[in-house]
Amino acid sequence: MDNSQLMKGILEGCVLSIIARGETYGYEILSVLEEAGFEDTGEGTLYPLLTRLEKNGLIVCRRAKSPLGPIRKYYSATEAGITGLEEFRSRYRLIAESAEKILYGQGGTQHD
Amino acid sequence: MIDYTLLEKQLTGEYRAAYGEAVKYIFTSSFSSDFTEEKMTELFDLLLTAQTNGKPVRQLVGDDPARFCRNFFSDYGIRERLLSFLHTLYTIAWIVLISMLLQLGSMEHPFGDFFSHRVQAGGFVVGCAIGLVFNLIVSLLRPVAMKNKKITTDAWAWIITGSLAVWIIAGIALFPDLKLRIPLWIALLLAAVYIAGYFTVRSIVRYRRYGTIRNTRRQLSKDSYYRELDDKNYERIIIESWVKQYHQLSKKGKVTEENFIEKVRVNEKHEKIGDIILNAVCLGVILVMMYRNAFVEKAGLTDTLIFGAVLSTFEFFVMRFYRKFTKQALAMRRKLVADCEAKGMTMPAYLNAWLEQNKVPASETV
Hints:
The complex is a heterodimer of chains A (112) and B (366). Chain A is of the alpha+beta class. Chain A has a single domain (3-103), classed as Arc Repressor Mutant, subunit A (Orthogonal Bundle), CATH 1.10.10.10. Chain A has helices at 3-20, 26-35, 46-55, 79-103; strands spanning 24-25, 59-65, 71-77. Chain A has a 3-stranded antiparallel beta sheet. The mean pLDDT of chain A is 86. Chain B folds into 3 domains: 4-72, no CATH class; 78-215, no CATH class; 224-357, no CATH class. Chain B is 77% helix and 2% strand. Chain B has 14 helices and 2 strands. Chain B has a two-stranded antiparallel sheet with strand order 1-2. The longest helix of chain B has 42 residues, at 301-342. The chains are: A alpha+beta (112), B mainly alpha (366). The A-B interface holds A 25-27, 30-31, 34, 40, 42-45, 47-48, 51-52, 63, 65-66, 68-73 and B 39, 41-42, 44-46, 48-50, 52, 55, 58-62, 64, 67-75, 77, 210, 220, 223-226.
């Protein structure tokens, strides 16, 4: 199955969650995702996602100097972002539980 | 535009290669400059941080740089596209405005004939139409060209320039005398209204996005990091030209290591005299043209004054543009000479020390 279809929504929730922990920037978000074991994020997909979150008012972006000198974009979550994250969490749990029941046979119809 | 090559030089090896790939991508795309600069500064920060932390570029960019670029720049939305299109029209509006003002300046009775004068717009319309068709074809072909690895950025630029030339010649050959006369005051009014309108819209958009109406380049040039890069690059150009001059002159035995600094000072003095002459020539041209207008062509006093005013404004902007660069270079050369004296070194020794201290990291890419 195509990984990217499955990933799209989940990644958005995870990125929002990382930003909600405190102000952060692109490189750091990528590192956290990578450490957690997400693949494919290092293909530029993170940036359009950040733009989308910003456009939807879930995060805000501030431009400031990085310790190395150049301008860096720092992202932080808005009120709407925090609420959106809570919603995502409960929705995700519901979906994950339902999917797990079927995928790993803990419930639903079972053979043999 | 920021000097992308300058930023590229701060990176090494695979980080530089990745940035170079993005530079290639934007040069073959028709993104708006605000968008491009915002994205390129962001990418630069990402790569520089990775380089400093020693994180392999593959983890950030993946295996396919072209796919990375497509994803990375994929948030070029409708709003940016629209603004970019409006900006093209804005450039055209300025061309219309300036050419109409020049027409007005060259008329015999600019006030009397203001509402009745008509201008020939055939060539202009054909030019715009050609530009539009050309733009469309380029944007359709671009993705195809990007996929072909044999077409390099240089080749693409040549293809674009070459086919544009063919289109222009074809346009002129097909419509040698398309007559389309429109009233001058209408063209002037439309251009002025459009410029004012676009400027307002752009200012609002920028203010909401960046909190200032300055363009991204101006915003960056206020920042010490980018300004320093820019200054260093400028200094390098000056230093390298001096080194070249020293080698040429010392080969002929005209200078020694000790008196080269004198030679530099004399050059500076000559430059100042040259500047004065240039100013005098500019003023002279305006006066001669006004004299010709008044006494040879026998135009009235008001017309001559308007003509002079238009010409002076035009020259003023050209000179201001030129001066901005020469002034900066002059200040920098003075600073370098003073620095050399303060250190008590001979000029050539100082130049070599500078170059040694500011070595550009060599590219290790294949």
